[in-house]
Write a structure and sequence with these properties.
The protein is mainly β. The chain has a single domain, classed as Pectate Lyase C-like. 2% of the residues lie in helices and 37% in strands. The strands form 4 sheets. The protein has a 15-stranded mixed sheet, with no helix packed on it. The two termini are 40 Å apart.
């Protein structure tokens, strides 16, 4: 791993107060905006820049931060407040267009700060991974804290799977970006938060899904969607109340990790690793009260290969605790589960499907390996296995297993 960090603590020291509209790349450069007013650290009001994202794009991001280029970060290993610029937002802001963040930048939202859709936010000609806040082809930037809530948008505007509405936050292209500590929700898009084609990006310590105004409301789409990305880190999140998958490692997602997440009360899998996803590490997650626990599947494209599903806790899901295999009736390698490892997972009181809590042969499987997995509850531990160790091997050397 590269030696880099997004430092939060201590950024106020050595900052530059911005009260008027000045442009700067000064180390630790901070612009503070409260209820649309640029303010100093002592609370002195300066320019009024507005509470719409179009105004923040035009009057703050474009005018108060100079453009940066790769040469500004390439000579460094430590990317922290010595290089990053900060925008601290406090108050409620309305997204009439996506808020577009630059590179080497941190959007720091106050705990009570909210970004929500404006009444005039258009739903026409939207595209996949469009969001209220976008990190679009940028590098070493982050969104920290606050609430970004797109759930008020009309859920019937687009029907799944062709919805192209607005996520709360999206990382698209670029690299080395982060979303941390955000309360995020959406209701007319493919997901609430997404990463696509952006290596070494992170979603951490977030509360994602449902509606901030109704904690038990189940919103449409996924909660977290990772597509065509490598080295993504998704960890320590509470992911809940989405009608689709809580966390989806979709096609061409590779060498990524999902760990320490709580995925609960979602309509489909708590964690779904699908299509050509390969070499991913799914570790120490809790999936409970979902449509199913963890699923590996190759359907449209594939295979899904060499993923490691280790030490997860699957509780009270309506379907299987863990399922793996290509989608029937496909039998070719392109629609198979190949070389995946399932170890030391614990299943409790899952209702099961096709006769058991662990379904190691949902469809075509080649060389999948299971060991040390436990189950308790009224449903049997295993669904029917293929009877061919080259397809699925379950190794339990202890007696009476």
């Amino acid at each position: 791993m590269l030696c880099l960090s997004f430092a939060i603590a201590g950024i106020i020291a050595s900052t530059v107060d911005v009260v008027a509209g000045t442009t700067s790349n000064t180390a630790g450069h901070v612009v503070r905006v409260k209820d649309g007013w640029v303010v100093s650290s002592s609370g002195v009001h300066g320019e009024y820049v507005g509470t719409y994202t179009s105004e923040l794009n035009d009057k703050v991001l474009s005018k108060m931060y100079a453009a940066v280029k790769p040469e500004d970060w390439q000579p460094f290993s430590m990317i922290n407040s010595t290089l990053l610029r900060y925008l601290e937002l406090d108050g409620t802001y309305l997204a009439d267009v996506p808020l577009q963040l630059p590179s080497l930048f941190v959007l720091q939202l106050a705990p009570t700060a909210v970004i929500a859709p404006a009444a005039n936010l258009t739903l026409e000609n939207t595209s996949t991974f469009m969001a209220l806040v976008e990190l679009n082809d940028i590098h070493f930037s982050a969104v920290l804290g606050g609430t970004i809530d797109a759930s008020s948008l009309n859920s019937s505007a687009f029907e799944y799977p062709y919805r192209r509405g607005y996520q709360a936050v999206a990382i698209k292209g670029g690299s080395n970006n982060a979303i941390r500590g955000v309360r995020a929700a959406a209701n007319n898009s493919d997901s609430a938060v997404g990463i696509t084609q952006s290596p070494r990006s992170e979603i951490a310590n977030c509360d994602i899904g449902g509606s901030p105004s109704n904690s038990s409301a189940q919103t449409v789409g996924r909660c977290i969607w990772i597509l065509s990305s490598s080295h993504a880190l998704v960890h320590d999140n509470h992911v809940h109340h989405c009608r689709s998958h809580a966390l989806d490692f979709d096609a061409y997602t590779s060498v990524s990790a999902a760990y320490n997440n709580l995925c609960e009360d979602n309509g489909e899998e708590g964690i779904f690793v699908e299509e050509t996803a390969s070499g991913n590490f799914i570790f120490n997650n809790t999936c409970r009260r979902n449509g199913a626990g963890i699923g590996l599947e190759a359907n449209v494209v594939g295979p899904v290969t060499n993923n490691m599903i280790i030490n997860n806790h699957l509780v009270g899901n309506l379907g299987n605790a863990i399922t793996a295999g290509g989608s029937a009736p496909h039998t070719s390698m392109e629609h198979s589960s190949i070389g995946n490892i399932f170890a030391n997972n614990v299943a409790e009181d899952n209702l099961g499907h096709n006769g058991g809590q662990y379904n190691g042969h949902h469809g075509s499987s080649i060389g999948d390996f299971w060991t040390g997995n436990k189950a308790s509850g009224s449903a049997p531990t295993w669904c029917a296995l293929p009877g061919n160790v080259s397809e699925v091997a379950v190794f339990e050397p202890e007696q009476n297993q």
